UniProtKB/TrEMBL annotation:
Keywords: Membrane, Transmembrane, Transmembrane helix. The keyword Plastid does not apply. Residues 190-206 have a biased composition (Pro residues). It comes from Oceanitalea stevensii. The chain crosses the membrane at residues 70-92, 98-122. Residues 21-91 form the General stress protein 17M-like domain. This is General stress protein 17M-like domain-containing protein. Residues 178-189 have a biased composition (Low complexity). It holds the Pfam family YflT. Residues 166-238 are annotated as: Disordered. InterPro entries: GSP17M-like_dom. The keyword Transmembrane helix applies. It comes from the Bacteria.
Length: 238
């Protein structure tokens, strides 16, 4: 829902709602109860809007499909259609209405079973269950026009409903700085006695360059040490 130039009107095209959010609820029933309370207090509820955020499409599985269940559902729907046709012909004919209803019920149920079984057979078993779909929101916010915010908050507060201007369930929580002593937090320097020179930071050990591990003879622990090059006048030994 959204506000428009006319009170209580809905715009012909999808439009984002306007107004100030005065309350936030976990369920739709709580938001509905808040609007009902405003209506009971003779507040012009056409100035309010219920907005759901964090929408999810939920498909709840209601059962398993089988040929007997499909046939039963088809018989019921066909019987209702046959009842309507039989009642119509019974009112237009000169004979008894009950005489027309019974054949219409039987014929309608038979055609309903036939159509349901044929339709289920064409699915090839790709959807052997029944379900019901709903669009569910994570939070429900109650918006109100700027000129009526104070009155609406006062009425909700009298009814015991917590209100707060500008609360938005979709906005992220503010960042909280780490407390003292928390992991990763830096401790503030402690002030020293008056007149004492500032304490110097402890010297940091020099960074060690990477050197291969060597044994007590100076030979590296990995690979094989290359032989020394022959000096001038010395013969190379194989």
């Amino acid at each position: 829902m959204a506000f428009s130039s006319s009170r209580g009107g809905v715009p012909p095209t999808p439009t984002l709602p306007t107004g100030v959010q005065i309350a936030s609820f976990d369920t739709y029933l709580e938001a509905q109860r808040a609007v009902d309370l405003l209506s009971d207090k003779e507040f012009e509820v056409q100035h309010t809007t219920i907005v759901g955020t964090d929408l999810r499409m939920v498909e709840r599985i209601t059962g398993r499909l089988s040929y007997p269940r499909v046939a039963l559902a088809g018989a019921m729907s066909g019987a209702w259609f046959g009842l309507f046709v039989g009642l119509l012909f019974g009112l237009l004919s000169e004979g008894s209405t009950l005489v027309m209803l019974l054949p219409a019920l039987v014929i309608g149920a038979a055609f309903g079973i036939l159509f349901a079984l044929v339709s289920y057979a064409f699915t090839g078993g790709k959807r052997d269950f029944t379900s019901s779909s709903q669009v569910v929101a994570g939070r429900y916010g109650l918006l109100c026009e700027q000129s009526r915010v104070g009155e609406a908050m006062r009425l909700l507060g009298e009814a015991g409903i917590r209100t707060r201007v500008g609360t938005d369930p979709a906005s992220p929580a503010p960042a909280v700085p780490p407390a003292a002593g928390h992991y990763g937090a830096q401790r503030a320097p402690q002030p020293g006695p008056v007149g004492a020179p500032p304490a110097e930071a402890p010297p940091q050990p020099p960074a060690r360059s990477f050197t291969p591990l060597e044994d007590e003879h100076g030979n590296p622990r990995y690979g094989q040490r290359r032989p020394a090059a022959p000096q001038d006048g010395e013969e190379r030994t194989s």
